[in-house]
Amino acid sequence: MNRIISSQSGRSAVRIDDEFWNRFIELVRGTVIPYQWEALNDSIPEAEPSYAIRNFRIAAGMEEGAFGGMVFQDSDVAKWLEAVGFSLAQHPDAELERTADGVIELIAMAQHEDGYLNTYFTIKAPGERWTNLYEAHELYCAGHMMEAAVAYYYATGKSKLLDVMRKFADHIASVFGPEPDQLRGYDGHQEIELALVKLYEATGEERYMELARFFIDERGAEPNFLVEETKRRDGRSIWTDRKLEPPTLLQLAYNQAHRPVREQDTAVGHAVRAVYMYTAMADLARVTEDRELRDACRRLWNNMTRKQMYITGGIGSTHHGEAFSFDYDLPNDTVYAETCASIGLIFFARRMLLLEAKSEYADVMERALYNNVIGSMSQDGKHYFYVNPLEVWPEASERNPGRHHVKATRQKWFGCSCCPPNVARLLSSLNDYVYTSSAEANTIYAHLFIGGEARFTLAAGEVALQQQSLLPWESDTRFTFTAVPESVFTMALRIPSWCGGSAALRLNGVPMDYETRNGYAIVSRTWSQGDCLEWAPELRAQLTAAHPSIRADAGKAAIERGPLVFCLEETDNGQPLASLSIARDAELQVRFDAELLGGTVVIEADGYADDAAAWQEDAPPYRPMAQQPASRAVRLRAVPYYLWGNRETGEMTVWLRTQ
Amino acid sequence: MNRIISSQSGRSAVRIDDEFWNRFIELVRGTVIPYQWEALNDSIPEAEPSYAIRNFRIAAGMEEGAFGGMVFQDSDVAKWLEAVGFSLAQHPDAELERTADGVIELIAMAQHEDGYLNTYFTIKAPGERWTNLYEAHELYCAGHMMEAAVAYYYATGKSKLLDVMRKFADHIASVFGPEPDQLRGYDGHQEIELALVKLYEATGEERYMELARFFIDERGAEPNFLVEETKRRDGRSIWTDRKLEPPTLLQLAYNQAHRPVREQDTAVGHAVRAVYMYTAMADLARVTEDRELRDACRRLWNNMTRKQMYITGGIGSTHHGEAFSFDYDLPNDTVYAETCASIGLIFFARRMLLLEAKSEYADVMERALYNNVIGSMSQDGKHYFYVNPLEVWPEASERNPGRHHVKATRQKWFGCSCCPPNVARLLSSLNDYVYTSSAEANTIYAHLFIGGEARFTLAAGEVALQQQSLLPWESDTRFTFTAVPESVFTMALRIPSWCGGSAALRLNGVPMDYETRNGYAIVSRTWSQGDCLEWAPELRAQLTAAHPSIRADAGKAAIERGPLVFCLEETDNGQPLASLSIARDAELQVRFDAELLGGTVVIEADGYADDAAAWQEDAPPYRPMAQQPASRAVRLRAVPYYLWGNRETGEMTVWLRTQ
Q1: Where would I find the Non-reducing end beta-L-arabinofuranosidase-like GH127 C-terminal domain in this sequence (chains A, B) (predicted)?
Q2: Which residues contact A45 (CB under 8 A, 6 or more apart)?
Q3: Which of A34, A134, B571, B617 is the most exposed place for a label (fewest CB within 10 A)?
């Protein structure tokens, strides 16, 4: 196994400049980050106050008042700062940096002498630090602030927040550990584990990595910390006045604390907690070359992505606990598929790529990115889905209580705290997801086809290249080498699953064969400056079938083209969409509509509609099939899933009945 | 509109003797009633105590102790007594009658001087009578006891319980009414309204009918009683320590109290409450010849049975509030379709038949009876479904919290109080559902084809007849007249919707034409003793389609034969059942299997199965349709829905994909 150095292990060396993605990144920079800043400062008139900045001012002694917001409110400030860090790395902005520096001052002032930092406990429950890890998100908030500190340090070179968080991490390391006077515990919501690995990579301090490993290895060990802690607290809860019984095994599975992490092989419980934890596990497996942990990651990856993932890259199919349910249980209508969970899946995929470059990880990463994640955001960047359904019947969302959680329209984003900032920090750090490289193996892996510039330091020397991509509309991608060393290095181009193995390669205009390794086209040679690799995986519209065990998709097809899943909307196809069907061998016609939804590919096909006109108004609802007229011919029209819900409210479906 | 006198308006004149139904009725008599008696007396070792009889002993001053069970625990005693009454009417049993007489003694002793009777308020909250109609089921319990009193009086001629309940009704009539010193209120759970009509019909006392009408007409009037009452009670609740806000309009819809009853046109809210209320409305429309109320009944009937009813006769599609959701929202997997709701639908259908003899009402009555209702009970009579699903995936019932309410196996009946006694009282009074007759119009309507003897008093004179039926296995039904008057009367035979209008009639072996009116074959003549009418509606197995607006059934077919809906079980067809499909014109082969499930018709057909073998273990869950092999041929096997779940636990589905 090669050790692979992340492009993120140092200041970002990739800069995105891509027709498709520039708009998203600009939306985050120009709209989401400023808007969120207003929200954090309670300056949006129609919104519930956030209290997040005010909490820090109170904790810093600059203001009097009570704690406001959720117990994990600090994490909103952290996620904003992290997104700012990523954004500044790509797009310097002196004013934004000054604002961020001010917030960092405030955070530093809110830190206790001993390093402790959490405004909820500082303001509201000063005597209760570390007594309710199960519920209080104390280490979770710490983790997000560590991630912010690292991102801001990489972007600006300023270490103030990094120093604050190192001090806090040192404090945490004194509180938690295997010694008799230490807590053998971990947080109810995983997050600090992956953050500590980042802190380790930014500082080189191994003790942070060790602390992450401690948290991972303690989780699920006997006697169960979360059970014992609840007993010690006499069941006191921050969510209810009722005293809680210690969590059962089923309840512990919600926190992935039902059994030791290394022994887990099925994705269970709260999906976001799960993928944040798997991300840290993959990090640790890589950094410490821990094969047992790597094997656990592979098992969990396989279970999650092969048996519990929607075609859109959504995970966590039930809203009860925002959780995984079980293998192949992927209902399209009562779905959850939270935005944050897919973002966490992308984190995990990237860590798996760092651990071992297999195209399968990038395939899933791309699927989640191009569908579930960007589909969660409206075109104006101000409305978001938390739940990303594959089938919507607006009346059911309103009137069937079992579907209230499935919204037919994106919600104003200030009403909710977790998903929009997570989208912001992912999109503003998207440059980190395009490549990985292995210095020792002299190999650059191109995982995503997103245009921009990139620089790599290999054993062979420095490489600089420029990628131009027309995805998701056309697949022709061009890599031009602007700086190359004198000796051999390898360019590994992902053969995306969607091309069905058909991908043409040209070097300087001349077609060339290539060797394939783990799903990548391998080109090893001595390169010349100006060399140009043209990579054209076949981009065809196709009908996709689901595994027969996924009951919800039986007899149905999805339409895919390249990384994009398509869907049918009522506005294009009428309703009920359930009455539509398509032949299994239907010809799919692809065209680009420059006027529609800011310009998009549309896929059309001949299909059928069950004839509702043949049913008299107020007819009995059931009648002999023999009386049913043959369905009538219709023209079906599908748009990319990520664009749904940007026109009139109506039905939407990804899966379409086949004939 | 003819006034039609119910066969129930007097001691029962119909006695069932039918190969199919005898078994059910005997099960109720021999198993359910004795078992329930043990339960009411806390004598079932493994069961939670009921406390129901003990509560009466405490209220009667015969025992010390605290109230036990639910606030509506008295109704369990009432439902048991009512079933006993119905059973004694058909099958005298001196010991059972002695037991019932003893219970009635006890009830009489628990009655207060002023007529009040309710053990919860007597024992637990003596000062709080009539202060929480919204939650406390006080009039609901009274209603059930009135129904018991009437049934027991008809069965035995003994009026002790009837007198107790008349006295209680008189007390209620003094408390509730339009006068300033009276409560302008009604119960949160409708039931007393239909019971008061029964009390009126048994006693001839119009004030009971007037009181029923008062409750019906006050419901939903402004100012809303349930809102005002909650305010007067300062939000105190018997379900929670929290103070309740007055109910919103949406919450009032749960109790059908969101608008005046006469203005309602859509079935909303808790399904059992709804159909109990509609039953009383139809009664009152008939008794008082109230056309406005009749029109409301027709509207509600039409909405409910044409847009909110499952093919099994199940109603109330969501478990949230055990309620209706909205038109055409009939999910098969997250279904509720409570047993009691279908029983209430049968009550309502029978009242509509009394109001106007249209075969549509009987079609629905038969559908609910032969499918949802008898399907709720296991073959041993000791296990019951509350929720009657049309699609079951046992693992999902266990592991997807949104489907926990859908059980894959019937539950031991003592764990639950409402459905089993309701099944018992319906089946033991099934004789009341077979016919209605109109004395003035000299017409006997045969609604259900269930064998037995019946006597009718028409203006023309006395009629006695014997019905022999082979349903649901064969449709040939024979009516033999054993006593006839000298002048003309009419025999009206329902043309069931399932025969598609094809039904042959013979008189004494000679084919005869007939006139059709409102879905009945009309035969008016002067009859001779010994005349024999043979009625043979065509009984064919067929595939049934659902209205295209029912999204859940799109592209699917159900298999029906006569009154029976069929289903596929895993034990016969493997799993996943979702991978199976059938041609729209498949030939259905019918055979009787005497060994299977006590003897049943089985329907077989050629079908297709998506090939799961073609998917490698651990393969990615999505792949091009083009790689999907053609499905393989299989032989499908369907059994009657009412028999499902009596073999190994497994998947079940009513709706099958069509090709």
Answers
A1: 542-657
A2: none
A3: B617
Q: B142: phi > 0 → left, psi -120 to 50 → alpha, else beta; which?
A: alpha
Q: Out of B321, B395, B621, name the one closest to residue A546 (CB).
A: B621
Instruction: Show the tokens assigned to A612.
Output: 């509702």
pLDDT digits (tens, 9 = 90+) for A365-410: 999 999 999 999 999 988 999 999 999 999 999 999 999 999 999 9
Per-residue pLDDT tens for B96-131? Answer: 999 999 999 999 999 999 999 999 999 999 999 999
Q: Does the structure show a pLDDT above 70 at B634?
A: yes
Which overall architecture, per CATH, does domain A434-537 show?
Sandwich (2.60)
Which of A141, A340, A418, A567 is labelled catalytic? A418
- Grouping H, G, I as helix, E, B as strand and the rest as coil, residue A541 is strand
Catalytically annotated residue among B322, B366, B391, B569: B322
Question: Which residues does chain B have within 8 Å of residue A657's beta carbon, measured at their own beta carbons?
Answer: 554-555
Q: Dihedral through CA A390, CA A392, CA A398, CA A401, nearest 10?
A: -50
List all residues 6 or more positions away from B594 whose beta carbon is below 8 Å from its beta carbon.
none
A297 a catalytic residue: no
- Place A618 in a pLDDT band, splitting at 50, 70 and 90: confident
pLDDT over 90 at B11, yes or no? no
End-to-end Cα, chain B, rounded Å: 47
Distances B296 to B2, B220, B270 between C-alpha atoms, Å:
19, 14, 18
A361 neighbourhood in chain B, CB within 8 Å: none
The answer to whether residue B418 is catalytic is yes
How much is the pLDDT for B414?
66
Query: How deeply is A657 buried, as exposed, middle or buried, from its count of CB atoms within 10 A (0-12, 13-18, 19+)?
Result: buried
Distances (CA, A) of A241 to A120, A235, B207: 18, 10, 50
Rounded Cα distance, B17 and B292, in Å: 39
Q: Copy the structure tokens of residue A435.
A: 């490549």
Torsion over CA of B94, B95, B99 and B101, rounded to 10 degrees? 20
Strands B632-640 and B564-569: what pairing?
Answer: antiparallel
The yes-or-no verdict on residue A629 having pLDDT over 80 is no
Tell me how far apart the alpha carbons of residues B378 and B597 are, in angstroms, rounded to a whole number.
11
Say if the Cβ atoms of B334 and A334 lie within 8 Å. yes
Instruction: Report how many Cβ contacts below 8 Å link chain A to chain B.
Output: 185
Q: Which of A360, A557, A657 sits opposite B555 (nearest CB)?
A: A657
Apex B506 CA angle, B505 and B511, nearest 5: 95
Which of A622, A627, A654, A658 is best to mutate for the B interface (most B CBs within 10 A)?
A622
Radius of gyration of chain A from its Cα atoms, rounded to whole angstroms:
25
Give CATH 2.60.420.10 domain extents, chain A.
434-537
User: Is A400 in contact with B545 (Cβ distance < 8 A)?
Assistant: no
Q: Note the residue count of chain A.
A: 659
Contacts of A379 (CB under 8 A, 6+ apart): A597, A598, A643, A646
Q: How is A555-587 classified by DSSP, letter by letter?
A: TEEEEEETTEEEEEEHHHH-S-GGGEEE-TTPP
Pairing of strands B652-653, B14-16: unpaired
Angle CA(A242)–CA(A247)–CA(A249) in degrees, nearest 5?
155
Q: A170 exposed, middle or buried (CB, 10 Å; 0-12, 13-18, 19+)?
A: middle
B415 — pLDDT class (breaks 50, 70, 90) = low
| B329 neighbourhood in chain A, CB within 8 Å | 393, 395-396, 399-400
Q: What's the pLDDT band for B521 if we cut at 50, 70, 90?
A: very high
What phi and psi, each to the nearest 5 degrees, are found at residue A596? Answer: -85, 125
B372 touches B343 (CB < 8 A): no
